[in-house]
Amino acid sequence: MTTPRTSTARRGLLAAGAATVLTSALPAAFAQSKVLLRISTPAVPDDWHAKMWTVFKDSLDKSAPGEFDVQINLNASLFKQGAEPAAMARGNLELTTISAFDIAKLVPEFSVFTAGYIVRDPAHQQKVFNGPIGTDMFKTVAEKMDITPLATAYLGTRQVNLREVRNVKTPADLKGVKLRMPGSKEWLFLGEALGVTPTPLAFGEVYLGLKTGTIDGQDNPLPTVRAAKFYEVTKQIVLTSHLVDSLFIAISNKASASMTPAQRQKVKAAADAASAYNNDNRIKEEAQSVDYFKQQGLQVTTPDVEAFRKTVQTAYLNSDYAKVWPKGLLERINATK
Ligand code: KDO
């Protein structure tokens, strides 16, 4: 006669036996049940917002071993710059970094974050997007774009970078300069506001454009000027500091819905770890960049930043973009401390 104790033990053994059979049949099924997270970004491997994806992957490998298949595609090798949101909507991509400019195409009020001289510095940026303004805006993004921003990465403060040295004090001094901008009307408007002749070009073509002279310059944060080696083919950096730029680590709602709540929480934690890694390293590098470029033989000059601020802000406030900014939003952003 088996005592209840033995029968429990036996049941346990049977269960273990069944588990062994199941495990041996599992590998293929298990591999299929991994959550696929395809990432696409135009970032070059040496840039912090490329390296942060390895932090993201490592975080998930640690918190949820074997549950995710994270595939990192750099250099726009999977999707062209700017094509990511559409790819996510079609279900061909799960994760990317989207810019305020990408968002503003579909959520017009987001254009407030494409305007120069609005976000003051990285700390202000984090407070704005991690506070009530970010919560409200991200909710609209999730509804209108079917994509959810998970964390805000600091891309850096954008500066003007020229092939030939020029005396630049005010926007008028940039007249006629063919400054490369990413290819959307929101980006081109930022160029117009700066006083240049904006020339659309994908990020991956900028180095060659600078080398051959099809463009006179480009604008990007200093860590990117270094990582993408633009300093090799330019002679000057003008510290206009016109845009404290953001990239939002974003997931498609479809991918998010396919996960368990625990997995969603781990993905959010991984995105936070990735952006924190990017932000810390980028801020540190940005502080040392001027010295680096001087050592490389570039001239680094400071214009009349107040003149740039006034011209750029006037251009935005008089534009159609400002017409759709919700009443009081600008004041709330300015008042965020
Ligand atoms: C660029 O094309 O200048 C830009 O800085 C725009 C950003 O929104 C982002 O796409 C970035 O390029 C890429 O990630 C490459 O660094």
Radius of gyration: 24 Å
Mean pLDDT metric: 93
H/E topology pattern: HEHEHEHHHEEHEHEHEHHEHHH
Strand count, sense and barrel status of the largest sheet are:
9 strands, mixed
Helical residues, percent: 40-55%
Structural class: alpha/beta
Shape: globular
CATH architecture descriptor: 3-Layer(aba) Sandwich
Uncertain runs with pLDDT below 50, 5 residues or more? 1-31
CATH superfamily: Bacterial extracellular solute-binding protein, family 7
Overall number of structural domains = 1
Which CATH class applies here?
Answer: Alpha Beta
Q: Which range does the strand content fall in?
A: 15-25%
Please describe what this structure looks like.
The radius of gyration is 24 Å and the shape is globular. It contains 14 helices and nine strands. Helix 2 packs antiparallel against helix 11 (261-295). It is α/β, with parallel strands linked by helices. Strand 1 (35-40), helix 2 (48-63) and strand 2 form a beta-alpha-beta unit. Residues 1-31 have low confidence and may be disordered. Helices cover 50% and strands 20% of the residues. It has a single domain (26-335), classed as D-Maltodextrin-Binding Protein, domain 2 (3-Layer(aba) Sandwich). Strands 1, 2, 3, 4, 5, 6, 7, 8 and 9 form a nine-stranded mixed β-sheet that branches. It binds 3-deoxy-alpha-D-manno-oct-2-ulopyranosonic acid. 3-deoxy-alpha-D-manno-oct-2-ulopyranosonic acid is lined by residues 41-43, 47, 49, 81, 99, 182, 203, 220, 224.
